[in-house]
From TrEMBL:
InterPro entries: RutC-like_sf. Gene3D superfamilies: RutC-like (3.30.1330.40). It comes from Actinoplanes digitatis. PANTHER family: BLR7761 PROTEIN, YJGH FAMILY PROTEIN. It comes from the Bacteria. This is Enamine deaminase RidA (YjgF/YER057c/UK114 family).
Length: 323
């Protein structure tokens, strides 16, 4: 079973965090670096990983919630570290039926062209595992507030590469105004599965025409989209300016999707929460709600620049959930 560690306070803290979970560096299958600036982490990464090659994603954020740390790590691990696949500097790890990929981006072209390049790059990485984009279980897009108006143009490249469905991956879209590299208008993270995927949808018709779904089932696992306070029928953003009400609504939405798959919030072991700057002060007030819905979930909370719907103050992405 894949283990998702609580937010790790930098590479010097990595070994101790793994040991607390009964794991070691050789068990890591993916690392996400949530960075608050153009930090040079490669030297610390090399020391901490001690030659263990893993796919790495880099996500610029405004801040790490709950401290003044310049960065934090999201770490996924599986006993034994799964199977390493490489091509040049690329590293992909396959473990427990999941395919962990590095984050991808380019600096050439406009938003739509860069988005298509990212999808094609992901397809090339999946080819290392003998898979196609049909194996994608979730994508997370990182783009800028200034690009929000252009975001709908990603629909065409997604349909071109992912196909007409009916199965599409879960998805999330986060706005981060510090690019992963100057000139990069979008960056993508992706997770895939080695076995067949099926859609999990509690009956929300809007997803019939979209290139992403509320969740997919991959064997004995559920991979969910990111959730905000959006009415899935009317597509109206709800509870503008009220973080606690938004949290209650989106947590209930996650539980609705889990229930459609025969699961519950108690199975969620880890959440990533993207908080907007104007919601940080109220964020501690969401803790009781979160613990009621997801009593066993460790939380990684970071401050993004904004979310795709201007009214959203919070977007939550559950880690992979046992079905």
């Amino acid at each position: 079973m894949t283990v998702y560690l609580p937010a790790v306070a930098g590479y010097p803290a990595l070994a101790a965090a793994l040991a607390e979970a009964g794991l070691g560096v050789g068990d890591i299958v993916h690392v996400t670096e949530y960075v608050t600036g153009p930090l040079r982490l490669a030297p610390a990464r090399r020391i901490a990983l001690a030659g263990h090659r893993v796919p790495v994603s880099r996500v610029p954020v405004e801040a790490v919630v709950g401290g003044s740390r310049p960065y934090a790590l999201g770490v996924s691990a599986h006993p034994g570290g799964g199977t390493l696949l490489t091509s040049g500097t690329d590293a992909v790890r396959v473990a427990d039926g999941l395919v962990h990929l590095p984050g991808v981006h380019t600096t050439a072209g406009g938003f739509r062209e860069q988005y298509r390049w990212c999808l094609d790059r992901i397809a090339a990485l999946l080819d290392l595992a003998g898979l196609t984009p049909a194996a994608l279980a979730r994508t997370i897009d990182y783009t800028a507030t200034a690009t929000r108006a252009e975001y709908p143009s990603c629909g065409r490249p997604r349909r071109d590469v992912l196909g007409p469905g009916p199965v599409h991956p879960g998805a999330a879209g986060i706005l981060v105004d510090l690019p992963v590299e100057p000139g990069a208008r979008v960056a993508l993270d992706a997770l895939a599965a080695t076995g067949p995927l099926s859609v999990v949808n509690p009956g929300w018709e809007r997803y019939e025409t979209l290139t992403y779904k509320p969740a997919v089932r991959a064997g004995d696992k559920l991979i969910l989209s990111g959730f905000g306070a959006l009415d899935p029928v009317t597509q109206v953003a709800l509870h503008a300016g009220d973080l606690v009400a938004q949290a209650e609504y989106l947590y209930a939405s996650i539980e609705t999707v889990l229930a459609a798959a025969g699961a519950s919030g108690s199975r969620v072991t880890s959440l990533i929460e993207y908080v907007t700057p104007d919601a940080v002060a109220d964020y501690p007030r969401t803790r009781a709600l979160r613990e009621r819905h997801f009593p066993n979930a460790a939380v990684t909370a970071v401050v993004c620049s904004a979310l795709l719907r201007p009214e959203f103050m919070l977007e939550t992405i559950p880690a992979v959930v046992p079905a």
